[in-house]
Write a structure and sequence with these properties.
Elements lengths: L13 E4 L7 H8 L5 H4 L13 E6 L2 E5 L11 E4 L5 E4 L5 H13 L4 E5 L11 H7 L4 E5 L2 H32 L11 H21 L9 E3 L2 E5 L4 E7 L6 E6 L4 E5 L13 H12 L5 E4 L7 H23 L4 H7 L3 H7 L3 H20 L2
Parallel strand pairs: 5-6, 6-7, 7-8, 12-13
Antiparallel strand pairs: 1-2, 2-3, 3-4, 4-5, 9-10, 10-11, 11-12
Helix pairs in contact: 5-6, 7-8, 8-11, 9-11
The chain binds zinc ion.
Zinc ion binds next to loops.
């Protein structure tokens, strides 16, 4: 049973291993693609893989992280547990119920209440666990940018219910096609593909069982520009940015020199719902913060060097899109031709990341193209 090391020297060993809940990687793509053959398109890899579903890491005094293992780092969000004498603040409530169960059990074991859950943005892998947290701690305040009051019950819930409906329809069709050795589009499958498809189908069924009845809860406390939460010894500073989405929140714990960025600052950011131009400005502001460690929405913590890499990527994306636009190229042609191989090489260092990059780069071009 291996627990990959985190990127930061200060992180200490894992506290416990949560029960492995394999979740097909395909489900992550379902959130961002509409590929009808998605059940086959992405194999989740070796189903007997012994990597835990989540890594629990003590990051700093009172700060514990739930990080996805490397192989599934894009399929659900990270989460953090910040304890204080005034109660526990959770940063992001991902889709995996095991993470929420772990935080609830930890709070109860420590005699604490979970008083706040911050949703860093509207994507469901950062707020789907709100309902489960509220069931355990009915007084918990759900905190987020004011735009989440509309986006969570509308966009997040709608995307989720569409995913449920799509899988409900696809799984029986995929199962009967598989019985004849075929994929969803009727294509013949190799033995390896049959095994991968069977795994994807059972993981899809497991996901449906867990997710069919989820309700999406919007923030009960929201803000426009900034908010401070008094944690006693520390102050949690919340700052709004328009970047990965229109309603991103970055949480800064100044005394601990840590910032929690949600997907505004990921190992490999998803740009398709974002505003690259204001994103670059946001990164300029964040770079000036007096912090050493950024905890992203996906991937391991990192420092300012990676922030600058992401900013350079966004700046080159914008420059390339502007150049294409001014030379009369159509958006459709720009989506096809701007593939940024040098950035793919630099940012996407394994097959999972390369697939993520390839599946999302055209939407990144469109986001830069359409931003006013
Ligand atoms: Zn996101």
């Amino acid at each position: 049973m291996s627990f990959p090391a985190t990127a930061t020297a200060t992180a200490t060993a894992t506290a416990s291993k949560l029960k492995r809940r394999p979740l097909a990687l395909c489900l992550a793509w379902l959130a961002i693609t509409t590929a009808s053959t998605v059940l086959l398109a992405q194999s989740p890899g070796d189903p007997t893989n012994s990597e835990p579903a989540v890594r629990i890491v003590d990051q700093a005094p009172g700060v514990t992280l739930a990080l996805r293992p490397h192989q599934v780092r894009f399929d659900d969000g990270n989460s953090a547990y910040v304890s204080s004498e005034r109660g526990v603040l959770i940063v992001d409530a991902p889709t995996d119920p095991e993470v929420i169960k772990h935080w609830v059990a930890k709070a109860k074991a420590e005699g604490q209440s979970i008083r706040w859950v911050l949703n860093t943005h509207w994507h469901s892998d950062h707020n789907q666990g709100n309902q489960q947290l509220q069931a355990a701690f009915p007084d918990v305040e759900i905190v987020g940018h004011h735009s989440l009051r509309g986006e969570v019950p509308n966009r997040a819930a709608t995307a989720h219910h569409e995913r449920v409906a799509r899988l409900t329809e696809q799984i029986p069709a995929a199962r009967s096609a598989l019985a004849n050795g075929k994929g969803l589009s009727g294509q013949d499958l190799t033995a390896e593909q049959i095994e991968a498809q069977a795994t994807a189908i059972s993981q899809g069924e497991e996901w449906l069982d867990t997710n069919r009845a989820v309700e999406f809860l919007a923030p009960t406390v929201s803000f426009d520009h900034a908010l401070q939460i008094d944690l006693g010894k520390h102050t949690a500073e919340l700052h709004h940015f328009r970047a990965h989405t229109s309603g991103d929140t970055v949480l800064v714990l100044r005394e601990l020199r840590i910032a929690f960025t949600g997907d505004l600052l990921d190992e490999l950011p998803f740009i398709g719902h974002g505003s690259p131009r204001s994103w670059v400005q946001a990164l300029d502001v964040i770079e000036r913060l007096d912090v050493d460690t950024f905890v992203p929405g996906h991937g391991d913590p990192f420092g300012k060097e990676h922030l600058r890499v992401i900013r350079d990527y966004l700046a080159q994306l914008i420059a390339a899109v502007d150049e294409a636009k001014s030379s009369g190229v159509s958006l459709e042609d720009a989506r096809q031709s701007l593939t940024f191989p040098q950035w793919r090489k630099k940012l996407a260092t394994d097959d999972i990341a390369r697939r993520f990059f390839d599946n999302t780069v055209a939407d990144a071009v469109a986001a830069a193209w359409n931003e006013q």
